[in-house]
Predict the structure.
Amino acid sequence: MSHIPSFGAGTFRLTGQAAIDSVRNALDVGYRAVDTAQIYGNEADVGQAISESGVKRADLFLTTKIWTENYARTRLVPSLRESLERLRTDYVDLTLIHWPAPGNGVELPEYMEALAEAKALGLTRQIGISNFNIELTRQAIAAVGKNEIATNQIELSPYLQNHELTAFLKQQGIAVTSYMTLAYGKVLKDPVLAKVASKHQATVAQVALAWALQLGYAVIPSSTKRENLASNLLARDLTLDAEDMSLIAALERNGREVSPPGLAPAWD
């Protein structure tokens, strides 16, 4: 079974000094996992923040994602080597295929096998997928074997609970990583979550993150504010009861925030 830390710092939409400060603050308040991607344009910022943090590389879990233009067998490994240079490290802990991008000219078996090759070369400890539906996850399993796929990183929030896909992943022993757990902040205004939060003297963000953690998902919220980074981390200590969980279960509304045409699959 793969090991994916349950709590990490996301860096989507953060670049330059904002990215450096966010990662430095996250490491400072106790995060030990950081999630980036080639397309974020911030791998060098993340690498700088980590190298200046004084945290030992062995104590960190670093994830990056391969962008679509690097899916070809001839491009994937070289592009990951470039990512490692930007990140100032000789390996990442996890490398994901960022989007299935059906029809971008590279077939799924080719990029999954190239990703497995990156692992065999020691450039990444684990490999996985992101934004894959059930059918494409099956194809990825067929290409490299289900024990090779550490996680499927998918959009998940109280408004988008993805029951079919998460049940399938659980059955396959593939960890679920939830991104956009706060639905771009939309859930922060939710009255049901506000009620649960006040019952526990917690923040709404903590409640949404605790909900995902209790379902067994890993989370990677991001923030530019040190106090929010620290506050979010406290979700690990929050236990929701059965009533809380069923109130949140009822918030499902298929509220997807991210589905770029040409990159996204047909969702389950």
The beta strands are 9-10, 33-35, 61-66, 92-97, 124-130, 149-155, 175-179, 218-219.
